[in-house]
Amino acid sequence: MKKQPLVDSTWYRLDNSAKIYPAIMSDRQTTLFRFAVTLKEAIDPNLLQQALENIYDRYPYYNVTLGKGLFWNYLEKNNEPHSIHCDTPSPCENINAVYYNGYLYKVLYFKNKIATEFSHVMTDGYGGLEYTKTLLMEYLRLSGHTIENDGSVIEPDSKIDPTELYDDHIRYSASPDYPQPEENERNLFGDIRAFQTKGHLLPMGTYNIITGVMEVADLKKISKYYGVTITELLVAVYMDALIAIQKDQIKKPAKYQSVAIQVPANMRTMLESKSMRNFSLFVTPTVEPPDFPDFDGLISFINGFIRENTKLDKMMQLMRDNVSVGENIFVRHIPLFLKLPITKYIATTQGSTQHSGTLSNLGLIKLPPSMAKHVEYITCNLGPDPYSKATCAMVGFNGKIYVTFGRVIKDAVIERNFFRRLRKLGISIKIQSNC
Amino acid sequence: MSYCVECGVELAEYHKKCPLCETPVLNPKKSFDFSKNDYPVFKKHHSTVNRRKVARHLTGFILTMCFLMAALIPGIIDFHANSTITWSIYPMLSAALLWVSIALPFFKKRITFFKEFTMSWAGIAVFCIVMNLITLGSLSWAKYVVSTMALVWVLMSGIFIKGHIRRFVPVVLVYILTAVGYFMLIGSWIADTSAVFSLVLPLEVILVIVFLVSFFLIRSKLHGAMNFIILFLTDILIVCIGFDLTISRFVRGNYAFTWSFIVALAIVPMILVAIIIHKRLKVQRVLSKKLHS
User: Rounded to a whole number, what is the distance in Å from the CA of B112 to chain A's nearest CA?
Assistant: First the structure.
């Protein structure tokens, strides 16, 4: 097994999931994701900058820049100063290496809002959220509020656990203590070509965000009626919306394509892990043409699919399959200047064509009561995806669920179908947007 | 608070129209509170056409025209001068090959690398066979080119055909068998059968053994760029010595070190330097960062 990095390492290998991102990062597909916390008071930029500096040393694995080796990219300690910036009209804009001193995350502010944007090269939603919570706590303390931490937020002066730096994909896939996958024929590039919404792309750098705010109680009532979780319900609604769009955009039923939604699963809920790097896998419920199920059929299909495919043995198999590609002796020794274009070609022609959309549920965000009372709401969104055109992320906070779509096409056709379907189910929604 | 009459959703205070369906908020008493806007003011959108697709098709069209001209002009001149097609068949065939390899992919919306590669490869093979038949009336040189291309195609297919990359041992076996078959075929074309068994086959056996031993060493024990370099240099050394001994026995009838001695003089110091660097921590750190695999 490869050596895991130490806390005082000056460079880190990319984790197994992150290896693909340097190849596909572009202005169109920035691979960033964002958390935005809106407070009940206006943000003081000076205090926010101070908070950023105070927590800087607690997250050494995020204070890095992307370096180039002979075979792989790597993360190298960044000794440049990091500073906050004013928010931009379009979230998740590509990170300008000069403007942000090579850092792979941004801290932004606008009126009452603190936003953090992270590159998937460094971490996934869990790591980003932990950082954001610490930053928020430090900011509120500097603002003069007394915050009592109940253990749900990492303290800026707490000791760094060495396992936070681990690439747990590698650690667990090499461990014999977990179910071994059955030998089966691996379909490396997949064979489905999923439906992807058609539409005119917005100008480069423009990213339209629509957030729907719903009561958790309303969604729970409906999901209880169908006997599914909220995530499963929303995936079904999303899929139903995409099926309706496909039927509208493709006239001939013979040309219908599969509809597939990527749903990230946080592996930390299944395996003991404190890793602050990527440690998520995707399950992709897919319905095949020509006879798409109705909404009730979709719900029962997604319920069964997600339950079946998020079992530990299935996830371990998926993880080992993913790791085996990155650890392949041939793949490892292709020089980076060849590896990047090849990876990009494969990712854009094979990987990106296999899903119609992404729905990421970051779950319920828990903050200490002394912190939560200063927070109005929290949203999160994924970066632009020019292939599926729109992505969806959701978080729960303070009895409400914030479902945020980001899209790169002019027409909000996906969001319109999605939220209208939810309205038909009797859920009241409040819409806020940057467009 | 405002509601969209089409979507039935409540809208934030600052929205003049529904972000979902663009239906305007029609309430004369409504005052829009832009101070509560969640984002900085957005730039106006400009309508865009799919420029990339247009550019792709345009490039394909221009290339097609170029190749068509390159094929037609020599053909017309040839036909005008000789009343038949003679020398112009070569530029015409070349233009057709270039069109298949270069221009055709621009018209395909989604074409995988392997499909494009197979298409171009097949085009080149057909081109070589036709050229050889036209010029010499037999497959004299084309058979070497086509068999080499077939070997490269098999090597590539192991990487790109889905599913194969996981089944490592069958892929390696197919590679080895294809390579052995290829060299024996080439050997039988260029030399007599005894040369194949006394020269070609031993050389192949050396290559296969070195490859397999290195492969399993890397898979099981060796990690790190420096180990890999040491192994790679050692492999070169062993292959050179093995080749030298085999060739000298074939040519002179006895085993003798000739040119491999000079190779060893160059490579052994390199291996020693690599081992020393491997033990030096600071140099090792920098190199491991840049060369990690």
Answer: 6
- Best mutation site among B10, B23, B38, B114 for testing chain A: the one with the most A CBs within 10 Å? B38
Query: What number is the average pLDDT over the span B203-211?
Result: 84
More confident residue, A8 or B282: A8
How, if at all, do strands A259-266 and A286-287 pair?
antiparallel
β-sheet bridge partners, residue A402 = A213, A395
- Confidence (pLDDT) at B222: 65
- Strand ranges (DSSP E) for B84-201? none
What pLDDT, on the 0 to 100 scale, is given for residue B31? 64
Contact criterion met (CB below 8 Å) for A54 and A156 = yes
| Ranges assigned E (strand) in chain B | 2-3, 10-11
Per-position b or e across B189-208, b if 16+ CB within 10 A of its CB: eeeeeeebeebbbbbbebbe
For residue A306, what are the contacts with CB-CB under 8 A and spacing of at least 6?
A231, A232, A235, A263, A283, A285
Contact list in A for residue B9 (CB cut-off 8 A) is: 212, 419, 423, 429-431
Q: A38 with A375: CB under 8 angstroms? A: yes
ipTM of the complex: 0.84
B49 CB near a chain A CB, below 8 Å? Answer: yes
> What residues are paired with A260 via a beta bridge?
A286
- How far is residue A6's CA from residue A163's CA, in Å, rounded to a whole number? 9
Q: Tell me whether residues A67 and B166 touch, CB distance under 8 A.
A: no
In degrees, to the nearest 5, what angle opens at C-alpha A413 toward C-alphas A360 and A434? 70
Q: Residues of B with CB below 8 A from A26's CB?
A: none
Residue of A nearest to B3 (CA): A430
Q: What is the pLDDT of residues A168-207, one digit of tens each?
A: 888 888 877 776 666 555 555 556 788 999 988 888 888 9
Is residue B49's pLDDT more than 70? no
Cα–Cα dist A24/A367, whole Å: 34
Would you say A14 and A22 are in contact if contact means Cβ atoms under 8 Å apart?
yes
Give the integer Cα–Cα distance in Å for A230 and A361: 9
- Low-confidence winner among A137-146, A246-255, A410-419 (lowest mean pLDDT): A246-255
Residues of chain B contacting residue A187, judged by C-beta atoms under 8 Å apart = 162-163
Does position A393 have pLDDT exceeding 60, yes or no? yes
Q: Residue with structure tokens 């080499």?
A: B148
Query: Looking at CA atoms only, how far is residue A330 from chain B in angstroms?
Result: 9
B88 has pLDDT over 70:
yes
With contacts defined as CB-CB under 8 Å, which chain A residues touch B21? Answer: 412, 416
The answer to whether A377 touches A395, Cβ cutoff 8 Å, is no
**B47 to A200: CB separation less than 8 angstroms, yes or no:** yes
For B292, which of A72, A432, A434 is closest by C-beta distance?
Answer: A72
pLDDT at B279 over 80: no
Read off the amino acid at residue B199.
L
- Number of Cβ atoms within 10 Å of the Cβ of B283: 13
- From chain B, the residues in CB contact with A206 under 8 A are 42-43, 45
Nearest to A199 by CA among A245, A255, A252, A240: A245
CB pairs under 8 A between A and B: 146
User: DSSP class of residue B197?
Assistant: I
Closest to A306 in 3D by CA, of A340, A348, A265, A364: A265
